[in-house]
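User: Can you predict the 3D structure for this chain?
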Amino acid sequence: MNSKKLPLGSVSFFLTVFLCFFFSPGASAQLQQDSYDDGNDDGWDRFSPLDIVGASSIFTFPEYQGGGHGYRLQSPAPPVTDAGPARSFTLLPQVYSDFYASVDVVDWNNEVDQAFGIIFRADNVGLGQTTGYVMNYNPQQSSGARGQAQFNIVTGESDAGVIGAADISLEPGHDYRFVMSAEGDTFRAWIFDHLDLTAPLVSYFGVNDLYPKGKTGLFNFYPGADATDPDLGIADTTFDRFWSTSELPESLDGKTRTSPWFGTPTVPYMTSISPANRGTYAPASDGLHFSLLLPEGMAEAPQIQFTLNGIDRTSGLEWSHEGQTMEASYKGLEANRVYDAVVEFLGNTPGSRTGWTFDTFEQSHLTSGEAFVIEAEDYNFDGGQFINNPDPSGIKESGQAVNSANGYLDQEGIPDVDFFDYDSDPGPEEVAALRAFDPVRTQAGSSETGSDEQFSGPDPAVNDVTRAVYAALDLPEYQVTDTEGGEWLNYTRDFPEGEYHVYLRAAGRGDSGDPSGRGDQ
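Assistant: Here is the predicted structure, written as C-alpha cells:
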C-alpha cells in the first residue's frame, strides 16, 4: 500500500425525481440530507482555505440526468505554496459522535492526483488547524493510474496517518455511492457502483480514538508534488445526494451493513441479486433471482426488461409479491456458462439499470478431462519446462509443503525465457508464496487490506472461491499480483486436437500501460 502526503480524500440514483431532501438537524435522529436539486447549498458552511492567496474554491450545481443537479467542488491551484495545496471543504452544522453517512460521486477529474470524499468528526475548522477524519478516494494513488480508498486522520489540516485502505480503481463515466459508519473508535466504508447497489465493490475499515465528535461534510484535496501547476495541482469533484444521521438506518442491519440506504423510495429499487455480481461456480439448477423494493402504493411489478447475454428473457421471469417487495425468478440457466445479466426499468432516466456477471461452471466439469485449467501462477520453469497436468501445490497454513514433486511450488523460472518482470527481487515471503525464487509475485489471496469479517464478509486476503481440490488439501488459492504493463509469463501445455471455448478470469485496478507507464493489467 502506497500512501501519499495528505490523501484526504456515487452516483446519481435511478431517477432524478427521487426525493426532495431536507435538513432537520434538530430531529431525534439528527438527520441531514441534500439532493442539490434546488440548485443551492443552503445550510452548508463553505470553507475555502486558499482565499488568502487568491485561489478561492468554486462551488457550483451542474445539471445532469434530465434535470437533476449535483454539487461540484473545484479547487484551483494556488500561485504559491505558502497556504498549502488546492483544497475545498463544505460542512453541515450538526455535531456527531456516532453516525452513518452516504454520498454519490457522479463526476471527477480522473487525470489529476486528487483525493475526495466525506470529512467527519471535523472540528476547529480553519486554515492549518482543522482536525477530524476523512473517508476518501484517490484515482492516482499509485503509478499506472491505480486508485485507492482510505480512511485518514486529519490533524492541523494535514494528514496524520492512514488507518484503513482498499485498492480499487473507479471507472470514469460510472456513478458510485460511498457509504460509511463511525461507531466509537471504529470506522467502516463501502463503495458501490450504481449498476449494482445490492453489493459493494469493496469494503474496508479503520480504528482510531483521537477525535470523538465533530461535523461532517464533503471535501477534495490535491496531495501531489505539482501544487502550483494550474493544470495538475487541482481538485475537481461532483457529488450528489448526501445524507447523514445519528440513527442506524434499517438497511444497515447491524450484521452485514453492506446495503445502501434508500430513504423513502419513490421509484422501484433492486435490493438483491442471486447469483451475486462476479459470482462463480453458481449452481445452474438454483436459477437466477432478484428482489425489488416498490414505492408505497405501487401494487404491481414495474415495466422492466431482463436480458441474459444480450437476449431478452423477460417472458421467462416468474414473480411473487409480498407487501412492497417483489421477487423475480428465472429457471433457464445452463451449466458451464458465463452470463451477463441486465435488468432495466423501462421509461426511466439513465441510471435505472442493474447489470452483473456470473458463471455456472461446475467444479466437477473442470476436473473431468473435458476442460483444461491453467493457473496464472503455473507458468513455465527451467527455460521452457512445464507440467502438463499438475497437481494442486502450495504451502498449508501450518507450513507443510503439498505436492511439490508434480506441482509448480518453488519451480524456478528463467528471466526473459519463462517470464519477464521489471523487478528482480522476489520480495517478502507473503508475495512470493508459491514461486519463492521468482519476482513474479505469486501470493495466497490478494493484497487488499482493512477487512472485517463481521461486517464485510470473508477476509479479502483470500478474495477468490477456494475450490474443492484445494480445500481438500487445506491449501489457499494463489494469485499472480502486481502485474505491470509490458510484463509477461510463458505457458506451455499439450492440448488434444479440437475446438475450444477459452475463458480468462482476471482482475485489475489500473489501466494497462506500456513499460514506461508501468500500468497494472
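The mean pLDDT is 83. The two ends are 17 Å apart (CA to CA).
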